[in-house]
Amino acid sequence: MNNWIKTRISELKARAKKVLKKMPSFSEIQNSQWISTECGPVLKSELKNNLFRCPKCNKAQRLNYAKDRFDIFFGEDKYEIINIPIDKSMDDPLKWVDQKTYIERLKEARKKTNSNCAVEFAVGKPQETRR
Question: Does residue 60 sit in helix, strand or coil?
Fold first, then answer.
């Protein structure tokens, strides 16, 4: 009796592996022209042209970068990001250590976002709303 259970479990594992192999990697998803919304797939360019609102249901989508919000508010590249100098000697006053040091995590985050600060500020003239 135990034998048929093991056989069934190994069959299910084999099927699951096939399904998982077909799934795209994170980098493939990031580099895709498409993004998934509750209504289904939408072109990223179409979403951006619609101010990050789903063209099918008009629901606001998440903005992952400050640049996207600045583009909506000021108009594309019609603003200047204010560079605020940061005293990096104060990056980790607690000397925090987890699986990685806090300094390592901070370096990775700064490289990924291309920003030294968690908050970005910009100066420009707000554009007229497109609604």
Answer: strand
Report the C-alpha dihedral over residues 88, 90, 93, 96, rounded to 10 degrees. -30
The Cα–Cα gap between 44 and 41 comes to 9
The CA distance from 41 to 34, in Å, is 6
- The C-alpha atoms of residue 55 and residue 68 are separated, in whole angstroms, by 17
Which residue stretches of 23-129 are H helix? Answer: 26-31, 44-49, 66-74, 102-113
Kindly report the number of other CB atoms within 10 A of residue 123's CB atom. Answer: 10
Give, for all 131 residues of the chain, the pLDDT tens digit: 568 888 899 899 988 888 777 777 878 878 889 988 888 899 999 988 888 999 889 999 888 788 889 998 998 889 999 988 888 888 888 888 889 988 899 899 889 888 888 888 999 988 876 55
